[in-house]
Amino acid sequence: IILLIFISTIVFYIINFTFLRQIKIEKESINEIIQFFGFFYFSYKLLEFILKTFFSGKLLTTYGIKAGLFILPLIIFIFTLLSITSIVFKPSMIFLMVILNMLFLLVLKRAFEDSAIKLLFQPIDSSSKLILQSIGLGNTSQLAIIISGLIIYFISETSEDKLLLFILISVLVLICFWFVSVSKVIKYLNIYIKAVSYTHLTLPTTPYV
How far apart are CA 105 and CA 96, in angstroms? Predict the structure, then answer.
């Protein structure tokens, strides 16, 4: 769980950097930037509301935590790949792909991943849960922000025209580790559930897999 939160947070801040960088490049005036952010956050919150209200609970109840954890890295992988493809074949689409990448990262993280991660802590006994939540949601996130800053700093030493490409490639590599961490979490969660089932503990009604 800690590794999952760690990688997810690093990816979030690196993609956020690409998002802010492209806005700086594309938008020349303060008014354009203000209008853009107004429309962007309106779209973000509207989509988040729709997904949380009508889809999030149903997806987690029907398909389990696995779906809630896999949907975000899958979509981000697709949009990151499309962003790289745009750089190589159609530069005019780069801005749109980067914006959609950030939009879906925010929306799916709030609507699905955050809820799924909270459910991961439910089977853990209360004393251990508080410690793990403190480490996972606090200290791990802070460390991930530091690491993401270092990654951006070292990549920024490359030439300006290749900077975005190298950043997005690093995101793809991180997402591969993200998939591995999700798989490990699901695997060990299944083992844990089978183990505690023999003690007749009452588990949450939401399926985990």
Answer: 14
| pLDDT at res. 124 | 65
Longest dimension (CA), the chain: 64
Distance CA 147, CA 133 (A): 20
Q: Which two tokens stand for residue 191?
A: 């083992």
C-alpha closest to that of 114 among 180, 48, 172? 48
Give, as one character, the DSSP assignment of residue 102: H
Q: What does the block give as tokens for 139?
A: 């200290």
Q: How many CB atoms lie within 10 A of CB 205?
A: 6
Comparing CA positions, the residue from 47, 19, 46, 45 lying closest to residue 33 is 19
User: Using one digit for the tens of pLDDT, what is the confidence trace for 23-61?
Assistant: 988 988 899 999 999 999 999 999 999 998 888 888 888
**At 200, is the pLDDT very low, low, confident or very high (cuts 50, 70, 90)?**
very low
DSSP state of 136: I
Answer whether residue 209 shows pLDDT above 60: no
